[in-house]
Amino acid sequence: MNSSGGTQPRSEAAQPKDSITQAKGNNAQAKGRLSGETALITGATSGLGKALALRFAAEGAQVVVAGRNAERGEAVCRTIESGGGEAVFVAVDLLSDTCGDDLVRQALDQFGQLTILVNNAVDLEGDGPVTENTAETWSRILRVNVTAAGLICRAAIPAMQQAGRGSILNISSRTAERASPKLAAYTAAKGALNALTRSIALDYAHEGIRCNTVQLGYILHATRDASNSPQRKAEIEAMGLTRPATADDVCHACVYLASREAEVITGITLNVDSGSTAARARSFDAP
After folding, report:
1. Spatial contact of 41 and 65, defined as CB atoms under 8 Å apart
2. Which pLDDT belongs to residue 284?
C-alpha cells in the first residue's frame, strides 16, 4: 500500500452531492462550526469515514481524506470540492511505522496547519475467540485499531501545539465495554484505544489539546442493511433503547466534539449507540 498521495488540482465540474453537503451548501464553507480548522480523518474513503469527511467539510473544515483506496478517496475529495470545500486525498498504510509522520507532513504541506484528528480506521478481519487467533491476526488488528492511532497522535500533537489548539477523536466501539462473541483482538484493541484517549487528554489539556472517544453501537448502513430480512430488521430495532443510530448521528457528535463549542470537554467516552451500552437490549426481555 502506498503511503503518499497526490495534491493535483481537480476539475470543478459538478459532482453528485452527499445529502449532508447539499443541505449545508456553500455558505456553510464560510460560516460553519469548523471554519478555520483542518481535519485529518483516517478510513475516510467509504462508510462512516466518508460521511465524517463530507460533514466536516460542509461545516467549513479543510479535510485530509486518508485511506487505502485512491479512486474512492479522490471521489470523496471531488464531492467536497463540488460543494465549495477544500480537500486532499492521502494514501496511507497503517501498518507502516511512518504512517503518522507521512500523514501529518502531507497535511501541513497542503494546508499549513492541523487542528483536528479523527482516528476512524478499523480492521477486524479474521478475528475470533482468543484460542483461535493467530499471532498475525493479533498483531494486525492491534496495529490498525490502536497502535496506528497512537503513531498518528504522536505526529499530530506537535502540529496542534504549533496551532495553539487541537481536538482528537478516537472512534471506538461498545465492544470495549460489552464484549461481542468471537472478537477477542478487536475488543482488546478498542479497550486500549479508550485508555489511550484518557492518557492523551491528561497529558495535553494544558496546551489546549483535547482528546475524546466516540463509542459506537450498531450503525445503520444503507448498502449492508438493504437486504435485511424482517427478522433481522426487528433484531436491529431491539438492540437499543431508541431508534437505531445512523452515520448522521455519529457526525453530529463528532462535529460538536471537534468544534470550539466543546473546549472544556476532554477525556470522555461519548456513546452513540442508541443506549445499548447503558442497558441490555430490549430483545433480551422478549417472552
Report:
1. yes
2. 53
pLDDT at 35: 98
Active site includes 186? yes
Strand, coil or helix: 38? strand
Query: SS3 string of 188-200?
Result: HHHHHHHHHHHHH
**Nearest CA to 167 among 215, 113, 219?**
113
**Could you tell me the residue ranges of all domains in the chain?**
24-273+281-285
Residue 11: phi and psi, rounded to 5, are -60, 145
The model's confidence at residue 221, banded by pLDDT at 50, 70 and 90, is: confident
Cβ atoms 66, 53 nearer than 8 A? no
Is residue 216 within 8 Å of 194, Cβ to Cβ?
no
**Is residue 248's pLDDT more than 80?**
yes
Helix, strand, coil share of the chain (percent; to 5): 50, 15, 40
pLDDT band at 109 (very low <50, low <70, confident <90, very high): very high
Residue with the three cell numbers 469548523: 34
24-273+281-285 topology per CATH: Rossmann fold (3.40.50)
Catalytic: which of 186, 204, 218, 256?
A: 186
Dihedral, CA atoms, 160, 114, 20, 46, nearest 10 degrees? -110
pTM of the full structure: 0.87
Which single residue is written with the C-alpha cell 479543510? 62
Instruction: Kindly state the average pLDDT of the residues 192-217.
Output: 98
Secondary structure of residue 81 in the 3-state scheme: helix
Residue from 46, 68, 63 nearest 7 by CA: 63
Q: What is the pLDDT of residues 191-204, one digit of tens each?
A: 999 999 999 999 99
